[in-house]
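Dear Dr. H.,

I hope your travels went smoothly. While you were away I took the liberty of generating a structure for the chain from your last submission, since the lab meeting agenda had it listed for discussion. I wanted you to have the full record in hand beforehand rather than looking at slides cold. The sequence, exactly as received, is reproduced here:
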Amino acid sequence: MIHLLSKRFTRLNQKEMFVLTDFDRTLTEHDSATSWSMLETTPYFNSNYGYEATHIFEKYRPIELDHQMPFVLKAKHMEDWHLQVGQLLNKYHLYKKTIQKIINTHTGIKLRHDTAPFLQEMYRLQVPVIIVSAGLGDFIEQYLKKEHLWFDNITLHSNFFLYDDDKVIGFKQPLIHSLNKSILTYPELTNRGTGLLFGDQIEDSYMGLGLDTLKIGFCNTDNHDVSSFNGYYDVALTGNSSFEQITKLYIKR
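The corresponding predicted structure, in token form, is as follows:
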């Protein structure tokens, strides 16, 4: 179902628009494996990593979802979360060949039912698609390539591994977490018109500060109810609401 949360309505020019979107639980289903959890559940990587990473997740995930905690303190916790996982990856010796093996065999990631047609349509129209993810960029990029959805109109801002030869030794800077997506800038969009912004958390609505966007929030039942998106998103999507419905509503044909 589509829930209109603001009175704003703009028909977008497909030659001038853009798409700014989160990945995990936005382009994927709300109950999909995430780019992070691929490492925790695979039989091709040390099982002790999965145990320790899950313990770290259980500590920091409630903090990520706590909207009462002061922003500065919460952001510091998010940075600590990423740094601790980076240290784990170095500790258990993750290699490029292992990453590719995980991508080729993992079946836990589930795209939303019309994500592929949506990305294909944006490619056909040559609409810039910028994916901003607090997940693992190496996994997201390789997954989209495997699904034949990695097109030349897509740019990915995420957490990419830092390598020593083929071994992961940490993350490239800057780290991207759920609270700092707003720091990114997009000079390639300077001359574009209004864009569609997609996310599943309140913090995603801050992506692209300074850009003109219609904000579409996927209201995943385990995180939010529709009312919590008021004031942050123009539209909330529940149930089987789709990208197709949004493009039909907002994009000029």
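Two observations you may find useful: The first helix runs from residue 37 to 41. DSSP finds seven helices and nine strands in the chain.

With kind regards,
E. W.
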